[in-house]
């Protein structure tokens, strides 16, 4: 039997880290699959792995898949002002107006998705809830202390993200609504 899960959060909410943390030999755990393509469901559902997990930072499209398919949905909730500040640090203050518009739209979409959520975790409590997240994604697998400790201090370098790529991804999602 296959087990599917969705995790949604605003950008800069440790979703890349969570994708790495949840990756297992018998799983397919992708980041941003549904953010970039409305045909991502074909890829997601065609992989032969027992566990399939999508971690997305653009809930505008991704929420529809989780709602329609009735799979577990986990939301990482981070304050939008913190998200905007982090995005401006990454891409520059000169992009603040555009980034602010993105965050407002993404935050609304995430709020709309909350009614379908099985679990909503505040960003600052993510580390304390890893066991719970794991149990929703892997209901029949134990989270080992070794795995948890190995990833505890892992830092994912997201400084290489380009503003152009972020803008293209967000604009694509606006067109496909």
**Largest sheet data:** 5 strands, parallel
Query: Roughly how many Å is the radius of gyration?
Result: 16 Å
Task: Provide the CATH architecture.
Answer: 3-Layer(aba) Sandwich
**Broad structural category:** alpha/beta
Uncertain runs are: 172-177
Q: Strands of the biggest beta sheet: in what spatial order?
A: 2-3-1-4-5
Give the termini distance in whole angstroms: 32 Å
Helix content: 40-55%
Amount of beta strand: 15-25%
- CATH class value: Alpha Beta
Helix and strand string, N-terminal first?
Answer: EHEHHEHEHHEHHH
The outline comes out as: globular
Number of domains: 1
Please count the beta strands (DSSP E, at least 2 residues each). 5
Mean pLDDT: 81
**Number of helical elements:** 9
- CATH topology description: Rossmann fold
Brief sketch in words of this structure:
With 177 residues, this protein is α/β, with parallel strands linked by helices.
Which descriptors would you attach to this protein?
50% helix, 5-stranded parallel sheet, Rossmann fold, alpha/beta, single chain, disordered C terminus, 5 strands
Describe the protein.
The chain is α/β, with parallel strands linked by helices and 177 residues long. The chain has one domain (3-175): Rossmann fold (3-Layer(aba) Sandwich), CATH 3.40.50. It has 9 helices and 5 strands, in the order E-H-E-H-H-E-H-E-H-H-E-H-H-H. The protein has helices at residues 15-22, 33-36, 40-46, 59-69, 80-91, 96-113, 130-137, 145-152, 163-175, and strands spanning 3-9, 27-31, 51-56, 73-77, 119-122. Strands 2-3-1-4-5 form a 5-stranded parallel beta sheet, with helices on both faces. Mean pLDDT is 81; it is low at 172-177.
């Amino acid at each position: 039997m296959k087990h599917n899960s969705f995790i949604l959060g605003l950008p800069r909410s440790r979703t890349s880290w969570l994708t790495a943390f949840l990756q297992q030999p018998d799983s397919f755990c992708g980041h941003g699959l549904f953010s970039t393509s409305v045909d991502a469901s074909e890829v997601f559902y065609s992989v032969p792995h027992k566990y399939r997990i999508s971690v997305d930072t653009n809930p505008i499209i991704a929420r529809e898949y989780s709602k329609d398919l009735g799979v577990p949905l986990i939301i990482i909730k981070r304050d939008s002002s913190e998200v905007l500040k982090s995005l401006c640090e990454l891409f520059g203050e000169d992009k603040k107006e555009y980034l602010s518009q993105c965050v407002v739209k993404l935050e609304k979409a995430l709020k709309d998705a909350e009614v379908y959520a099985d679990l909503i975790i505040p960003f600052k409590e993510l580390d304390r809830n890893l066991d719970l997240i794991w149990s929703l994604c892997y209901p029949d697998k134990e989270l080992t202390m070794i795995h948890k400790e190995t990833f505890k201090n892992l830092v994912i370098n997201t400084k290489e993200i380009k503003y152009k790529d972020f803008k293209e991804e967000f604009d694509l999602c606006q067109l496909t609504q």
